[in-house]
Amino acid sequence: MKIQMVDLKGQYVTIKQEIDAALLKAVAEAEYINGAEVKAFQHDLEHYTGSAHIIPCANGTDALQIALMALELQPGDEVIVPAFTYVAAAEVVGLLRLTPVIVDVDFDSFNVTLTNIEKGLSLKTKAIIPVHLFGQSCDIGGIMDFAKAHHLYVIEDNAQSIGACYTFSDGRQTQTGTIGHIGCLSFFPSKNLGCFGDGGAMMTDDEALSKKLIMIARHGQSVKYKHDILGCNSRLDTVQAAILRVKLRYLDHWCQLRQAAAKRYNALLQDVEQIILPPEMSYSTHVYHQYTIKLKDAEKRDALKIYLQERGVPSMVYYPLPLQHQHAFKGIARQGEVLRNATKLSTCVLSLPIHTELLEDEQQFIAEKIKTFFS
Predict the structure, then answer these.
(1) Most buried of 7, 76, 150, 339, CB within 10 angstroms?
(2) For domain 8-248, is the CATH number 3.40.50.10490?
(3) What percent of the chain has pLDDT over 90?
(4) 251-374: CATH homologous superfamily?
(5) DSSP codes, 25-42
(6) Cα(177)–Cα(131) distance, rounded to whole angstroms?
(7) Host H or E run for residue 102
């Protein structure tokens, strides 16, 4: 049984005719940059998310960097980022000569909390980048209230959670990424909505901010050859937009398949006392970009990973080294608190295969191997 961590080929086969037709059309029209499919995808994504303005760009990291550039922060200004996440959010803060303030996360949900953020606040704080990790929203409503009270910007890193919904205290449901001042997306191939290369987007309901984001992504141009500000070159190409238009139509269905797979894992693994299953928070739906368990005995994590690999079961550790231990941030970052949870999580988490083509038989096989390891 050959089990894939992510089965991109299998997913392609299920929609091959639509993808191939979209690719041929994009190639035949030969508008490889800023072709009609880019604008069409932008409109489709605005309709899907409910965001007033979608600005496509080259990748998710560019989206974060351009978002920060649009806020006109000054060197030394502080931006709060979670310790347990991919490097991109803190990386772009440092690249712009801002100060990353690294704060802890909740051990249960993996996400940054308002309590964590409060501990990182200082007079220099200008923005927060909460990350909706593994497919589930952080408590973005509470974070937005806090940000408003302290006059802070919020950039949502929604690279892993497109399609997830946050429920406000009054019962309203809103898609993650559309709640902060700017939301950022990645369309890396393994994401829930992924293209066949690199791609990303920014979203905002603020028209003035949207115009600035567009300018920055286009070398600071308001019109061609008129450069009003310093910018960069970050575009979603037409071929990738054509692929994403097709795949966007399947996103909700694919999220449901991931949720069903997670439910099966929960049923199969619920009696394994040595592991903690991923929780679903009351204020968020979960689209399971990752299905991540925790081992109660962290010293057995690597042994379990090797044991599964030897039996044909891939797994991944997201993330083996929290940001406060990354050499790149020594001397440029500030810690908002003692980062116990991020440190502990990095030693005990293990992500199991989850994707749209995952079969019940494969999940049963994986669960059996995990149970055998602990028996």
Answers:
(1) 339
(2) no
(3) 98
(4) Aspartate Aminotransferase, domain 1 (3.90.1150.10)
(5) HHHHHT--SS-HHHHHHH
(6) 10
(7) strand 99-103
